[in-house]
Amino acid sequence: MDQVPTNSGPPPAAGSAHFFADNLKGFLLAVASSAFIGASFIIKKKGLKRAGASGSRAGT
Asked: Does the model's pTM come out above 0.85?
């Protein structure tokens, strides 16, 4: 019978570095996304405050 090799050992060092790089990319994308969402919220909030201070309302 043929024996099928099993992968029960630790991953090779090159695979480990690749895994770390993928995790780092994902983490940086998550941080950048959070920063853009936060900046968008701040810009919207300032715009709404400015529009409210000017006194003009939609539909009137």
From this structure: no
